[in-house]
Specification:
By secondary structure, the protein is α/β, with parallel strands linked by helices. It has 20 helices and 13 strands. The chain starts with a helix and ends in an 8-residue tail after the last helix. Bound molecules: arginine.
């Protein structure tokens, strides 16, 4: 990844005939630009003092003339300094490569399916699927940036959808006008009310509403025109809503193959697995797959005793279908931590049936909110779950309120609102909970989306105001730009690590540090004012172009757009 690391590995090989991957870290600037611990790592295998090894490596590195300074610190750290000009040349070389700067080809020739946000059709889009949307989209982008062929699929929760319940409830509690006005929000309410009514009648030993709902399902299966009309209409309302909200978040998927599609095949597969001796049919008719050989005591239930499909039945068929249809090397399921055990079981079953696809549950923690009084609790609203559209509306309202001027366009306000929400999602490792705090989300001086967007807008503005870049002064030393250059040089490795570990927060941390570095830089260095000589101005502007590229590449991975003005 880094030519200096390669050089050190080479020196180690020449000196000791040892193969070692010399990873470089970035020490505090006063110690050096890069630092390596190879001497300590070699001490054991060579049975020698790390300090002596470091001395020998230092001598070789000094002789190479590549470093402006090589020094040894502590027990045997080797610190390296490179001239700013040489680093700038490294950067230009990396930018001149075939791939966009930041991309790599690690996934070349391989195919991955990324699954998100997998919303449920019965209810309006809520914050329950916010993180799958954000993290899943980022996973998609990380895979694309690292050369994978990517397929995306919204695994809709549409099975056992409340079709029957919707129709009965619509006729009992609602009407055309309300439905036309409130769409999925009306259907969501109908669903809740009808469910409650069914519970109530059950308590009285009755089941009229339930039977009626069942009748509608049978009618639909028999192709009854009225039932088909209802079904198509309700499904369209739900799907249009899902697309609309995904649009507001700036995400999409190529496929949306829901659970319903897989149910029948899943039931067949369950029986086939029994025949093959992989699954076991219990006395009550239910079918399970024992997973003890895979270290899991609880078997996975793949068919109910009444022969009906359940969640795992549809997922069994999904596994097979995806493998056969897309020939995947990897599948990433972006689903909350609550389903961790379920996916452990599912993936163990996949192994047991011989599936070769690498399966990853890219899980994330729950969303907490900070209340006005500073207390922390699971995110909720007076009505219960927080609807995503309410959240987006509120974010837009606050973005508007915080805007410095009145003539920021609506399109830019939307980008700021979504940027603030998304950055919050990536602010920490996805495995920790997401902490939603309206008071800090829009902070233009802190760790927030808008802070970074503002830094990107600023670079873009300078470049926009200086469209002509004169010839660069070849003798310029880039001393003032050294930290910015070093930061930019780190980027490809950050993308690699974020992709390898499916950790988009690494991109967020990086892009924040870049924004901070840029602000520091402007404070000390005039870029495009008249006091700067044209050849130096040119050098600075061409570096800013590289900064602008890096901002937009990184924010694009996170699904955060850069406003045209802020
Ligand atoms: N719709 C499900 C839910 O909201 C998530 C589906 C996850 N994907 C899967 N293949 N099971 O909980």
């Amino acid at each position: 990844m880094n030519k200096y690391a390669d050089q050190i590995s080479q020196v180690v090989n020449d000196l000791y005939n040892q193969t070692i991957d010399a990873e470089l870290t970035r020490p505090e600037p006063r110690f050096g630009d890069y630092s390596t611990n190879v001497a300590m790592r070699l001490a054991g295998p060579l049975s020698r003092r790390p300090r002596d090894i470091a001395e020998e490596i230092k001598a070789k590195l000094d002789a190479s003339g590549v470093f402006s300074e090589v020094s040894i610190a502590g027990p045997g750290f080797i610190n390296l300094k490179v001239s700013a000009k040489a680093l700038d040349e490294d950067l230009n070389e990396a930018f001149a490569g075939d791939l966009p700067y930041g991309n790599n080809n690690d996934g070349a020739g391989k195919k991955v399916l990324v699954e998100y946000p997998s919303t449920n059709m019965a209810k309006p889009f809520s914050v329950g699927h916010l993180r799958s949307s954000n993290q899943g989209w980022a996973a998609r982008n990380l895979m694309l940036a690292t050369g994978w062929e990517v397929i995306t699929d919204n695994h809709l929760g549409d099975y056992g959808t409340p079709f029957g319940i919707w129709v009965v409830g619509f006729q009992k509690f609602s009407n055309e006008d309300k439905l036309a006005e409130r769409g999925i929000y009306e259907l969501g309410d109908i669903y809740i009310k009808t469910k409650a009514a069914i519970k109530e009648e059950q308590a009285q030993g009755k089941h009229d509403i339930e039977d009626e709902a069942q009748q509608w399902l049978l009618k639909l299966e028999a192709g009854d025109p009225e039932a088909v009309e209802y079904s198509e209409r309700f499904n369209k309302i739900s799907l249009d809503h899902i697309h609309h909200v995904m649009g507001r978040l700036g995400i999409s998927t190529q496929y949306e193959i829901g659970e319903k599609f897989y149910a029948e095949r899943g039931k067949e597969l369950a029986h086939e697995l029994v025949d093959k001796g992989v699954a076991v049919q219990n006395a009550d008719g239910s079918i399970i797959v024992p997973l003890e050989d895979y270290g899991i005591k609880t078997p996975i239930l793949i068919l109910k005793s009444n022969g009906a499909a359940l969640y795992a039945t549809t997922d069994l068929a999904t596994l097979i279908y995806r493998d056969e249809t897309f020939h995947l090397d990897r599948a990433i399921y972006c689903v909350a931590s609550e389903q961790k055990f379920y996916f452990e079981q599912l993936f163990a079953m996949a192994k047991k049936i011989g599936l070769k696809t690498e399966l990853i549950h890219m899980w994330f923690g729950l969303i907490d909110q900070i209340n006005e009084d500073g207390t922390r609790e699971k995110m909720s609203s007076r009505k219960g779950v927080v609807l995503l559209e309410d959240l987006l509306d509120e974010a837009e309202r606050r973005a508007r309120e915080n805007a410095k001027s009145d003539d920021i366009s609506d399109a830019d306000i939307k980008k700021i609102a979504v940027g603030a929400i998304k950055f919050t999602d990536f602010a920490a490792d996805r495995r920790t909970g997401m902490l939603f705090d309206w008071r800090t989300m829009f902070n233009l001086t802190g760790y927030s989306g808008p802070y970074i967007q503002y830094a990107a807008v600023r670079v873009n503005k300078i470049l926009h105001d200086n469209p002509e870049i004169p010839p660069i002064d070849d003798t310029y030393d880039y001393q003032a730009e050294k930290e910015v250059i070093l930061k930019l040089l780190d980027y490809p490795n950050i993308v690699k690590q974020a992709a390898d570990n499916l950790e988009p927060h690494r991109i967020a941390t990086y892009v924040y540090e870049l924004a901070r570095e840029m602000n520091r830089y402007y404070e000390n260095t005039p870029v495009a004012t008249d006091e700067v000589a044209p050849g130096v101005k040119a050098a600075r502007l061409s570096l800013l172009k590289q900064v602008a590229h890096t901002f937009s590449h990184a924010l694009n991975i996170l699904g955060i757009e850069i406003p045209s003005r802020m």
